[in-house]
Specification:
Layout (H helix, E strand, L loop, with lengths): L1 E4 H18 L4 H19 L8 E4 L4 E4 L4 E3 L2 E3 L6 H21 L5 H17 E3 L4 H21 L7 H5 L2 H22 L4 H19 L7 H8 L2 H25 L2 H5 L2 H21 L4 H20 L3 H33 L4 H4 L7 H13 L9 H14 L1 H25 L13 H19 L5 H12 L1
Parallel strand pairs: 1-3
Antiparallel strand pairs: 2-3, 4-5, 5-6
Helix pairs in contact: 1-4, 2-3, 3-4, 3-10, 3-14, 3-20, 4-5, 4-10, 5-7, 5-10, 7-8, 9-13, 10-14, 12-13, 12-18, 13-14, 13-17, 13-18, 14-16, 14-17, 14-19, 14-20, 16-18, 16-19, 17-18
């Protein structure tokens, strides 16, 4: 019987899987499937209650994992806190879903290795509990490193279309200096708590850094550009891991440094940023006919609504934000499942190549459309319940803001109506091969999950309440 600290087990396992996926990259689909099963099993294992003594058995009695162990390396302390377990399980589940989709669409030989490495980085970031500088203030620097690694996944061995993936580096790179400067003022506050100048400076610097990390309009340009050129599975996985990390960072800053929200007028700039982002996402979607870029603008519109909800009253805010984010994940993964096959079959997501493709790949096209409409809160889509609840919350404060967001949602719907006309053009002979049984089944499963979330959103109550522990635990 071997006793293993959990941080060692997790980091070692993900590093090993990433290395093996790279060494056996010629067997990309097989390594993706194996890693998806392992990560899914580990994520499910984390959903179980941790024993009171912190010792959990793995593979029978072969290994005993100390779930509460603290591991110190280079003055960095890593441990699994109870409120980090839900977020860690969510990261592993999302990565497992992306790898599972990759087994049937196969986009890039090194994607499984990169996905596992990046997921490992986000997981270790969650386990980091102490450092010479506060882990909260170090987060943008770590996000910059993980985003730099993600550039390779976005590029997927493409020589062109580098602007979007490289622009994704800007938010964390620009935000990190503001966090470092804020740390100096926070240290001054620790010496002299009555120093109002230091408190105001720290609040403003952190608020500016958070604004950059949240990437609302006009810092949004990387998102739609990446969605246009990068593999959809990579876009779905990396964008949502990043946004989950930023939401967690925002909550931790509000908890550790409560003066930031008040001195920086956080609710005001979050409301303004959310409204502008939601409006621009909807307006830009009207004029977009490229399936990937349209998907990117739909995600941007949905992200704007989440930013609006971050400015809502305390308890309502985070419960609704997580509900919206959960529905967002379902819609984005469904959209990625459909777009990934269309991209694989046509070699590109260019509208000219996909004209009429929905007639020979109806399930994949439907998954792509239904996933995108969910990001606009269209009725009978996954996002409808969340969008409706969010709009009601906004309307209680100002009905004009809610009406503007609703009109922007209509812009996304108009964009997808145009896409439907392209995909099901009866006058164009399809240029792609009919989807296989396996690809059709994957798309059908995605559609069923979206439909279940639309018809019975209460199914998400239990997992969302569990994840809420990470923000109120």
């Amino acid at each position: 019987m071997t006793l293993i600290p959990f941080p060692i087990l997790l980091s070692g396992l993900l590093l090993l899987l990433s290395l093996l996926a790279y060494l056996f990259r010629r067997l990309e689909r097989a390594t993706s499937a194996a890693a998806a099963v392992i990560l899914g099993a580990l994520a499910y294992w984390l959903t179980r209650d941790i024993p009171a003594n912190g010792l959990a058995h793995l593979l029978g009695n072969a290994f005993v994992v100390d779930m509460q162990a603290k591991v110190t390396r280079f003055d960095l302390v890593f441990t699994l806190t109870p409120n980090a377990a839900p977020l860690l399980a969510l990261i592993l589940f999302l990565t497992a879903a992306a790898l599972l989709l990759n087994t049937v669409t196969g986009q890039d030989r090194i994607f499984p290795s990169l996905a596992l490495g990046i997921a490992g980085g986000y997981s270790i970031l969650l386990l980091l509990t102490d450092a010479p500088l506060s882990p909260v203030l170090l987060t943008p620097g770590i996000l910059a490193l993980l985003t730099a690694l993600g550039v390779y996944a976005f590029q997927s061995n493409q020589l062109g279309h580098t602007y979007g993936s490289l622009r994704s580096l800007l938010p964390p790179l620009l935000a990190f200096p503001f966090f470092i400067l804020a740390s100096w003022h926070i240290d001054s506050l620790a010496i002299n708590p009555q120093d109002s100048v230091a408190g105001t400076a720290a609040a403003q610097l952190l608020a500016l850094g958070l604004l950059l990390l949240l990437a609302p309009v006009p810092f949004h340009s990387a998102g739609p550009a990446i969605a246009e050129s990068a593999p959809p599975i990579a876009v779905a996985l990396l964008s949502q891991l990043y946004q989950l990390a930023v939401l967690t960072l925002l909550y931790r800053i509000d908890t550790l440094f409560p003066f930031v929200a008040e001195l920086s007028e956080q609710n005001l700039w979050l409301t303004a940023a959310g409204l502008i982002t939601a409006l621009w996402g909807g307006m830009a979607a009207i004029g977009s006919s490229h399936p990937g870029r349209l998907w990117g603008y739909a995600m941007l519109h949905d992200w704007g609504l989440i930013l609006l909800m971050l400015a809502a009253p305390g308890e309502i805010s985070w419960a609704l934000v997580l509900f919206l984010f959960g529905l967002r994940l379902i819609s984005i993964v469904a959209g990625a499942a459909g777009l990934a096959y269309l991209r694989m079959a046509a070699g590109t997501l260019s509208p000219s190549r996909l004209r009429g493709a929905g007639r020979v790949a109806p399930w994949s096209a439907s998954a792509a459309i239904l996933g995108g409409l969910g990001l606009a809160g269209f009725p009978l889509s996954a996002g409808f319940t969340g969008h409706w609840a969010a709009l009601q919350t906004v309307a209680e404060t100002d009905w004009r803001v809610a009406a503007a967001v609703l009109l922007a949602s209509g812009g996304v719907v108009v964009g997808y109506i145009r896409l439907i006309r392209i995909l099901y053009d009866p006058q164009q002979v399809p240029r792609i091969a009919p989807e296989s049984l396996v690809h059709g089944l994957i798309a059908i499963v995605a559609i069923l999950v979206v439909s279940a979330a639309a018809v019975a959103p209460q199914l998400l109550n239990s997992p969302i309440n569990w994840v809420l522990m990470a923000f109120h635990g």
